[in-house]
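hey so i finally got around to running the thing on that chain from the lab meeting. sorry it took forever, my laptop kept dying and i had to restart like 3 times. anyway pasting the input first so we r on the same page abt which one it is
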Amino acid sequence: MLRTLEWCLWALAVAAVSLSLALGRIETCDYVSVNGDFQSYNVFRRILAGQTPYVDFANYIGMAPVWVNLPLVALNNTFAGSLFATNFTSNILFSTTVLLWVWLITGSRPAAMLTSVFLTKFVSSGLMATLFGPALGGYWTGLFQNLYTPGNSMRIARLFLPFLLVGLGLVWLRLKKASAEQALLQESFAAPVNCAVLGVLAGTGLLWSSDFGLATAFCVAALFLLEQALRLWAGPRAFFARLAAFAAGFAGGALCCACLVTGFRPGAWLASLAGTGSWQYFYFNGTGGKALLLYVFSTPRLLLFALPCAAFLIWCLVRLWKGGLTDRQLLLGFVAFAILAATGAYVLSGSGYNFKEALEGYFWLAVFALAGRGLLWLSRRVARRRDLLLRAAAGALALALIALAGLDAARWPSAVHNGQYLEALGGYTTYQKALVELPEVTSGEPVFSVYATGLEAVEGVFQPSGCDYIIHALGDETREKYVASFTDGGWAWAQTPRMDLENWLTVQNWDVYRHLWAGYERCYATEYSWLWRACSDRSLPVEAQVSAQRQSDSGWTITVSAPAGESFTADLYVRWESGFTSPWGAFLSLGRSMVGCAVPLFGDMPGVAGYLPASGEAYIPVRVENGQGTATLWSADGAFTELTITEARFERAMPALDLYEQEAAQ
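ok and heres what got predicted. didnt touch it at all, straight out
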């Protein structure tokens, strides 16, 4: 009875903190246009309008945010409702992961419950930053805020999958009245039916997210094989029977889940996964073009957290080999394995800068938990009262947090709200130009938005291509459809992020922007975007010559020459090939390379970089000033690759554009 009461208090305390955070977020429904708030809401509103993921629209980050948020968003299908739901559920998921992580490390349920209800309030209140100073406090505050808030793309929801499986394992042990210090969970997989269930869980998880879904499925499969070979070996016949059961469950779980998600068109999910995977490495270029292995070994921050994680996994493997791995150690190792595998996937996909939240955050939580375990060990002489004190502290803290949340909820209706209330958003906003004045400029006519944000919600429409953010239009087929939806749609208006906020989009997506610059004129600026109005062809009657000069094995310059005095943007067609100069270079790069280009584009910010696949063809922009303009292309990693430009030609000239030049709305 007492334990049930403690769990109820814990759940209410976590919900209370989550409620306070969510209410604070929707006091004003402003957003960063290039961030993830509408990346989440547009998925929810599309599904609630009857659209199907991967078939009717691109769902870049997977189904995890949908599954954990959609029931709550359905109760209030507005942008404010989405903000509330995502902030509310994010902290619940984070607190649950802290509970499981600390519990597995310390073995103390009261300590885990106390930590999980305290940590978010400790960080969000500013106490952590105050106690640990601007260096450590600021670092940890920023790190944990990226976990208990939705951030760009609800990473906490995506990385929750391995913790969900751990929770299911602990529930199973509880139902069996077994201790996690034994190996009953591992030994249960000697039964083929349990192997099939594990396979279903892993296969279903593939659609959870594009990072932790794949990483978790890989880790489950790897650990299953290791357990069968090292602990449960009963001969080849038994091994292959269990493997067949696991594989059948895996395939069945993945297929059934994909069919349910896509309306029985699982090929749409597979095509999206393949297209995204083929473009991510060069498109996002998180490794700076460095050979992958060199990037890993020359990134101290990555190694600082990855090596201890890898060492722990090796220790677990040795324990398994010797037959001494307990279920608690297995579950801990599984989470560490999944986080490390997802980190590796980030690096391999070119998004190497995304490793820090999961890897660093849970590393520090493990350090703090181990320190707490040491304190618990030192207090063993008062063991009779230790758990009682912890349970009392956890209960008192839970009651305090529930009371504070009650005060927040009571004050919220009379809280000061910035801006004006927009019924279409369900909340207040200060974006007068973007959400009130811009629709007046367009007279309600459809607008093609490169980043779909509040305008679509206000006007009750959807981005027509199905890719709400242009950075999600990845893969050759998807991009062709995206370009066609813009060029063939006859749009009278287009909206882009202001290029001083996201200038890299212009070069990285010149296959779209070249049509925009040629057929639209900029006519209005909002707080975060530019509005473009369709006009007649803006191509300029300029003749220009193009020459390509090799500067090194991996580097070229392309020069555009025009009559003196001419200033314009040259639209160039380029075809190229690159390859590795040695097997050693291919090994260090793990077979992955790309081509970079640096171009002068804006007079008030000349250099903008973009990245292209290792070989292929594309259009690139070059700003020409007084008859001369030069672009630089190189293959990466330049120490191991060779680049050849096979064709470079001038397509057309368009007006030059500056970042900060303002044009009057008409």
